[in-house]
Amino acid sequence: MEGQLHRVDVTVLPAGFSRIESEIAGNWSPSLSPDGRHMAYVSDRGGSPAVWVQPVGSELAFRVDTGPEPVSAVRWSSGGGWLACQIAPGGAPRQEIWLVRPDGSDLHRVAGFGADTADNMRWLPGRPVLALTENLTSAVLIDVTTGDRTVVAEGPLLSLLDVDPAGRSALLRYGPRGARSIVLRDVATGAEKPVTRGERAVFSPGGGCVYALSQDGEFPVLLRITGDAVEVLASGGEVEDFTITADGRTAAVVWNVRGGESEVALIGLDHDGDRAPHPVTPLPGLVVGELTWSFDGSVLGFTAEGPGQPHGVWVCESGQIRAVSAEPAAAGAVRPRLLSFPAHDGLTLTGWLFAPAGPGPHPAVVWLHGGPEAQERPGHGPLFQSLVDRGIAVFAANVRGSSGFGRSFVDADNVALRYGAIEDVRTCADHLRSTGIAGRIGVMGRSYGGYLTLAALTWHPDLFDVGVDICGMSDFATFYQHTEPWIAAAAVSKYGHPDHDADLLRDLSPIHRIDRLRAPLLVVHGENDSNVPVIEATRVVEALAARDHPHRYLLFPGEGHELLHRTARATFLRETLAWLETHLCGLGHTRE
Question: Which CA distances in Å does 30 have to 83, 292, 311?
Fold first, then answer.
């Protein structure tokens, strides 16, 4: 641990708040001061994601200097004296955890040294102790007043979720993607007891029970577990997230409904009280997330976004919802329409259609999200809105493997079932054409969606007129060889084992079918990407150049798996629009 020790967890606020300049920006990772009067959050105003502190109800704000690297998340300690900041050096997947006072003083790193990565940070309520995970192998507690560092548990694919107030028990999560389980561990003996399958769980304030988002069934539910007694607190559809007040009296719960919209409700947790969910309305955006309570339980913070409306941070206090830092939806933003149709095998597929005004057919693109355990939702999409403005329809698809539609759908593309996901892309294109929505069609996506783009272009070469691959995998063998070790270990359940499933993974790798590609291809990648390493792009580009195939390569220095700097995103948007206008609408000339 760097810097002096024996620091006190008391709030020190900045003196130099200034008015926020008018600038459209995204704001996320809300975290409230203990009394709910101030909010810390991450914003990309100014060009790069940084931490800001803002009084609730004021237009004044203070930027907290954490150095030049982009910040991905911030958490305010329950005593108020510290902000824990998750920082991504070079924009890469590797993360460091730094502590800083809310006034910007006493900045020092506490985790993520050298080649280590640290994430899943959580302040233990009422204690100056930060819980985090390093390398998905070490569960760590850091006492920020003394600097003491305690390793609670070690093991493969492990993550620390919470520690009870007495320090006797820990909640740990084990396992690869799509197959994670939560266990209760006796810190002294190491004995472990299964809790449920899932991703999230916390102790009650007294430590007498556990609240867990269980994925044991087809759809997630919120459970309260007391000894061997299990109580369902929230169910019905897809329970997506929850947060508990520090006094243990109220839960805020968000549901994923209607193909990707959000509903939020408050649920009383007193054993003899009212358990009926009390909706939080009206929500300021179609998609809500990152629920967080102030330590005194008086204020609920969250993010909200919608079509043409960037992520904003909001609060709900005494039933009243108000913005802390948020932009309204752009005038004339197109609100998408949810489509539903059968796949080749009868499985129901859905997606959001952003369509230009007037009858079709339109030039169109099928957009494929990353993950694949993610979901395309009716949120902010500058690319989609810009394409529609140019007369190009966008179908943001949720093919098999996507979240939000139950456990069976998420698992429907695992390992050898991946061929079904590739066929889903063909089904989407066929549906758009057969219903008169689309004429010429392109396909594009990022991360896993980039892989699926390459797969669709090489499995169905006559179906698409253009492609855009954004940091997609082209060869599972080189992906496993060069990605971060913790990413590789967690991916086996989803993609297959690099040795045991080598023949299958080779057949599923688009690089071995690249000679079938016919559509012009734009390849986009961040130079520092260590999730999907840049070799996945260079091998495709080299293969296309050797064939003199129409292509363009956009490589972004100083960026990782995501484009975090606004200048890079602006360049990406400009070049992608030009590429698609050229090859879908016949405008301009191909630049190779």
Answer: 12, 7, 11
CA-to-CA distance for 457 and 455, rounded, in angstroms?
A: 5
**Cβ atoms within 10 A of the Cβ of 318, count?**
6
For residue 55, say if its preceding peptide bond is cis, omega within 30 degrees of 0: no
Going by C-beta distance under 8 Å and a sequence separation of 6 or more, which residues neighbour residue 387?
A: 354, 365, 393, 394, 577, 580
Q: Which helix (H) or strand (E) holds 138?
A: strand 138-143
Tell me the sheet residues that pair with 71.
87
* Rounded Cα distance, 71 and 31, in Å: 14
What dihedral do alpha carbons 158, 163, 164, 170 form, nearest 10°?
20
Calculate mean pLDDT across residues 81-104. 95
Rounded mean pLDDT of 177-181?
Answer: 93
Q: Which amino acid is at 591?
A: R
Q: Residue 527: CB partners within 8 Å, gap ≥ 6? A: 534, 555, 556, 557, 558, 559
pLDDT band at 71 (very low <50, low <70, confident <90, very high): very high
CA distance 385 to 330: 10
For the chain, what's the residue count?
592
Residue 49, Cβ density class (10 Å: 0-12 exposed, 13-18 middle, ≥19 buried): buried
3-state SS, 41-59, equals EEECCCCCCEEEEEECCCC
Cα–Cα distance list, 86 to 109, 119, 120 (Å): 10, 7, 9
Who's near 546: CB < 8 A, 6+ residues apart?
none
Rounded CA gap, 277 and 57, in Å? 27
Q: Mind giving me the DSSP string for 394-416? A: EEEEE-TT-SSS-HHHHGGGSGG
CB 393 within 8 A of CB 355: yes
Closest residue by Cα to residue 170 from 142, 225, 207, 120: 207
Q: Is the torsion defined by CA of 172, 497, 396, 219 positive or negative?
A: negative
Q: Which of 459, 590, 481, 458 is nearest to 530 (CA)?
A: 481
Percent of the chain with pLDDT over 70: 95
pLDDT at 587: 63
Cα separation, 455 vs 519, whole angstroms: 12
Written as one letter, the residue type at 139 is: A
pLDDT tens-digit readout, 264-295: 999 999 977 778 899 999 999 999 999 999 99
Q: Of 301, 270, 410, which Cα lies nearest the Cα of 347? A: 410
Q: Can you tell me the distance from the alpha carbon of 52 to that of 242, in angstroms, rounded to the nearest whole number?
A: 24
Location of structure tokens 């999560």: 173
Under 8 Å between Cβ of 306 and 319: no
Span 107-160, pLDDT tens digits:
999 999 999 999 999 999 999 999 999 999 999 999 999 999 999 999 999 999
DSSP state, 330?
Answer: P
Which one, of 521, 538, 421, 401, lies nearest residue 475 by Cα?
Answer: 538
SS3 of 332-391: the string is CCCCCEEEEEECCCCCEEEEEEECCCCCCCEEEEEEECCCCCCCCCCCCCHHHHHHHHCC
Phi, psi of 162 (to 5 degrees): -170, 160
